[in-house]
Amino acid sequence: MADWRQLRDQRMTEPGAEDAYDAARIAFELGRSVRQAREEHGWSQTRLAEAAGMTQPAVARFEAGGTVPTIPVLERLAHALDLELVVRLAPRSAA
């Protein structure tokens, strides 16, 4: 049986795998940022959901990185948390 790294390396050679991995990473990082801001406000997921016009399960999925959000959803979350949404494109850093 292959270990996790071997399995991951094998999967990453499949077509589209790198793009899917990058999308999942971005979704996770966005979710982590929103959770951190929510916690700094001392809010529950329910409170954020109400302020953003969403449901608590939708906020939970978002914070867990389970969804790739649209710009309007990000705008609603940013507005609810009194944050500025900044979207930018930047050169890739050398790995």
Could you give a short description of this structure?
This is Helix-turn-helix domain-containing protein. This protein is mostly helical.
Please characterize this protein's 3D structure.
The protein has a domain at about 25-85: 434 Repressor (Amino-terminal Domain) (Orthogonal Bundle), CATH 1.10.260.40. About 65% of the residues lie in helices and about 0% in strands. It has helices spanning about 5-10, 15-40, 45-50, 55-65, 70-80. α3 packs across α4 (about 55-65) and α3 packs across α5 (about 70-80). The relative contact order is 0.12.
What topology emerges from the helices and strands here?
Blueprint: H1 4-12, H2 17-41, H3 45-52, H4 56-63, H5 71-80
Helix pairs in contact: 3-4, 3-5
Supply database-style keywords.
95 residues; mainly alpha; 434 Repressor (Amino-terminal Domain); 5 helices; 63% helix
State the CATH superfamily name of the domain at 25-85: lambda repressor-like DNA-binding domains
Strand residue percentage: under 5%
Using the CA coordinates, give the radius of gyration. Answer: 16 Å
Tell me the CATH topology of the domain at 25-85: 434 Repressor (Amino-terminal Domain)
* Beginning-to-end CA distance, first to last residue: 30 Å
Class computed from helices, strands and strand pairing: mainly alpha
How many beta strands in the DSSP annotation? 0
H-E string: HHHHH
State the shape: elongated
**Do you know the CATH architecture of the domain at 25-85?**
Orthogonal Bundle
Average pLDDT confidence is 90
